[in-house]
Known about the structure:
The chain is mainly beta and 249 residues long. It has 5 helices and 20 strands.
Amino acid sequence: MQYGICNLSIVSLRLEPSDKSELISQVLYGDSFKILEQRKFWNKIRLAFDSYEGWIDHKQCIEITEDQYKTLNQETPKLSADLVEFIQDKDAQLYSIPLGSSLNGLSILNHHFDGHLITNVLSKNNIIKTSFLYLNAPYLWGGKTPFGIDCSGFTQMVYKLNGYKLLRDASQQATQGEALSFIEESEPGDLAFFDNNEGIITHVGIIMKDNYIIHAHGKVRIDRLDHSGIYNVDKKIHTHKLRVIKKVI
């Protein structure tokens, strides 16, 4: 088994080994992974954080040893805390990194960072405050940054920044935590999941107080939440059908 780490700000994770293939997620600076398969120009990887699998361009990562990989994933996570930060390499060149990038691999990459970072597990009360950092971020299928993010990437990154692990896709996240029977039992920071006409969970958002929800739909936005689902005040329609509410924290 071989291992790697992302040494660039944002790298596309694709369904197939082709630049034309669907973007299914993103690998952020400092993310480590196992290399499952190698081809001439592509590596199939499994991310350490959430076990998500996909293909990345082999030029957009570097290999590390098994011991380095294990050390990275045994350490307390250190995450960048600002929307955009910079790291400096050994030649004093700057690289931008997005919110939530992992800084545990700085010494392996021979990089320097002197910005704000998060190292602690924060209380559930901080979830909504963190979610506002992504407000108005444009929707991007597979995205995980304030410059483009999808619904489950949004919930995963907000939870990650507070010290909690969510799986990558909405349907996967719906398997985590404790189901609640009524909206009235929920509290800010809980997750609401929504399904399509076939009963497949396709959307997730973070519950706020007073029956509001923050979620990525067109952009990260705040809408009303009721027993039927998400009510878009601008369009005056329900845009998503509520399936289940889960308490993960």
